[in-house]
Amino acid sequence: MRIGELAERTGVSTRSLRYYEQHGLLRARRSTNGYRSYSEDDVRLVSEIRALLAIGFKLEETRPFVDCLRQGHSTGGSCAASVEVYERKLSEIDQEIRVLLNRRAEVAAQLSQACPGCFVRG
Protein backbone atom coordinates (compact mmCIF):
# COMPACT_ATOMS: atom_id res chain seq x y z
CA MET A 1 0.00 0.00 0.00
CA ARG A 2 1.10 3.57 -0.55
CA ILE A 3 1.61 6.20 2.12
CA GLY A 4 -1.84 7.73 1.70
CA GLU A 5 -3.56 4.41 2.30
CA LEU A 6 -1.40 3.71 5.35
CA ALA A 7 -2.25 7.16 6.67
CA GLU A 8 -5.96 6.55 6.14
CA ARG A 9 -5.91 3.09 7.72
CA THR A 10 -4.01 4.21 10.81
CA GLY A 11 -5.45 7.69 11.25
CA VAL A 12 -1.98 9.21 11.04
CA SER A 13 -0.93 12.00 8.71
CA THR A 14 1.49 11.30 5.89
CA ARG A 15 3.75 13.88 7.49
CA SER A 16 3.85 11.83 10.72
CA LEU A 17 4.58 8.66 8.76
CA ARG A 18 7.52 10.36 7.07
CA TYR A 19 8.67 11.57 10.49
CA TYR A 20 8.55 8.00 11.85
CA GLU A 21 10.54 6.93 8.82
CA GLN A 22 13.14 9.67 9.44
CA HIS A 23 13.60 8.30 12.95
CA GLY A 24 13.99 4.73 11.74
CA LEU A 25 10.74 3.48 13.26
CA LEU A 26 9.10 2.83 9.91
CA ARG A 27 10.87 1.45 6.87
CA ALA A 28 9.26 2.19 3.55
CA ARG A 29 10.16 0.15 0.56
CA ARG A 30 10.35 2.00 -2.75
CA SER A 31 8.56 0.83 -5.84
CA THR A 32 10.15 1.21 -9.26
CA ASN A 33 8.45 4.59 -9.70
CA GLY A 34 9.90 5.80 -6.38
CA TYR A 35 6.68 5.70 -4.36
CA ARG A 36 6.85 4.53 -0.78
CA SER A 37 5.33 1.10 -0.30
CA TYR A 38 4.09 -0.36 2.99
CA SER A 39 2.75 -3.71 4.17
CA GLU A 40 0.18 -4.94 6.69
CA ASP A 41 3.00 -5.23 9.22
CA ASP A 42 3.51 -1.49 8.94
CA VAL A 43 -0.12 -0.93 9.96
CA ARG A 44 0.65 -2.81 13.20
CA LEU A 45 3.85 -0.83 13.75
CA VAL A 46 2.14 2.53 13.28
CA SER A 47 -0.77 1.46 15.48
CA GLU A 48 1.68 0.45 18.22
CA ILE A 49 3.53 3.76 17.96
CA ARG A 50 0.28 5.76 18.10
CA ALA A 51 -1.06 3.79 21.07
CA LEU A 52 2.14 4.38 23.04
CA LEU A 53 2.27 8.08 22.14
CA ALA A 54 -1.37 8.42 23.24
CA ILE A 55 -0.51 7.24 26.76
CA GLY A 56 2.47 9.54 27.17
CA PHE A 57 5.46 7.75 25.70
CA LYS A 58 7.99 9.79 23.76
CA LEU A 59 8.64 8.78 20.17
CA GLU A 60 12.08 7.34 20.92
CA GLU A 61 10.61 5.24 23.75
CA THR A 62 8.51 3.38 21.19
CA ARG A 63 11.58 1.92 19.46
CA PRO A 64 11.87 -1.27 21.59
CA PHE A 65 8.18 -2.02 20.98
CA VAL A 66 8.59 -1.57 17.22
CA ASP A 67 11.72 -3.73 17.26
CA CYS A 68 9.84 -6.40 19.22
CA LEU A 69 7.06 -6.50 16.61
CA ARG A 70 9.63 -6.66 13.81
CA GLN A 71 11.16 -9.69 15.52
CA GLY A 72 7.85 -11.48 15.04
CA HIS A 73 6.36 -11.18 18.52
CA SER A 74 2.58 -10.90 18.74
CA THR A 75 2.78 -7.75 20.88
CA GLY A 76 5.33 -4.99 21.09
CA GLY A 77 5.49 -5.24 24.86
CA SER A 78 6.54 -8.87 25.07
CA CYS A 79 10.30 -8.32 24.77
CA ALA A 80 12.69 -7.59 27.64
CA ALA A 81 13.65 -4.18 26.24
CA SER A 82 9.99 -3.17 26.06
CA VAL A 83 9.38 -4.33 29.63
CA GLU A 84 12.29 -2.14 30.75
CA VAL A 85 10.70 0.86 29.05
CA TYR A 86 7.35 0.08 30.69
CA GLU A 87 9.04 -0.12 34.10
CA ARG A 88 10.96 3.12 33.55
CA LYS A 89 7.78 4.89 32.40
CA LEU A 90 5.86 3.68 35.47
CA SER A 91 8.65 4.98 37.68
CA GLU A 92 8.49 8.37 35.93
CA ILE A 93 4.71 8.48 36.35
CA ASP A 94 5.01 7.58 40.05
CA GLN A 95 7.49 10.45 40.47
CA GLU A 96 5.13 12.85 38.68
CA ILE A 97 2.32 11.74 41.00
CA ARG A 98 4.49 12.41 44.06
CA VAL A 99 5.33 15.86 42.76
CA LEU A 100 1.67 16.63 42.08
CA LEU A 101 0.59 15.37 45.51
CA ASN A 102 3.21 17.57 47.18
CA ARG A 103 2.15 20.54 45.08
CA ARG A 104 -1.50 19.89 45.95
CA ALA A 105 -0.67 19.74 49.67
CA GLU A 106 1.16 23.07 49.40
CA VAL A 107 -1.76 24.74 47.62
CA ALA A 108 -4.24 23.29 50.13
CA ALA A 109 -2.12 24.60 53.01
CA GLN A 110 -1.99 28.06 51.45
CA LEU A 111 -5.75 27.99 50.92
CA SER A 112 -6.41 27.02 54.53
CA GLN A 113 -4.17 29.89 55.69
CA ALA A 114 -5.84 32.40 53.38
CA CYS A 115 -9.35 31.15 54.11
CA PRO A 116 -9.48 29.28 57.44
CA GLY A 117 -13.13 28.26 57.01
CA CYS A 118 -12.82 27.11 53.40
CA PHE A 119 -13.29 23.43 52.66
CA VAL A 120 -10.44 21.68 50.87
CA ARG A 121 -11.71 18.70 48.86
CA GLY A 122 -9.88 15.45 48.51
Order of helices and strands: HHEEHHH
Strand content: under 5%
Number of strands: 2
Relative helix content: 55-70%
Low-confidence stretches: none
Quote the average pLDDT.
95
Largest sheet: 2 strands, antiparallel
The helix count comes to 5
Distance N terminus to C terminus? 52 Å
* Shape, per Cα inertia axes: elongated
Short note summarizing the structure:
This protein has 122 residues and is mostly helical. Helix content is 61%, strand content 3%.
Q: Main traits of this protein?
A:
122 residues; mainly alpha; two-stranded antiparallel ribbon; 5 helices; 3% strand; elongated
Task: Summarize the helices and strands and which ones pair or pack.
Layout: H1 3-10, H2 14-22, E1 29-30, E2 36-37, H3 40-54, H4 63-70, H5 80-114
Antiparallel strand pairs: 1-2
Helix pairs in contact: 3-4
Could you describe the 3D structure shown?
The chain is mainly α and 122 residues long. A hairpin with a 5-residue loop joins strand 1 (29-30) and strand 2. The protein has 5 helices and 2 strands, in the order H-H-E-E-H-H-H. It is 61% helix and 3% strand.
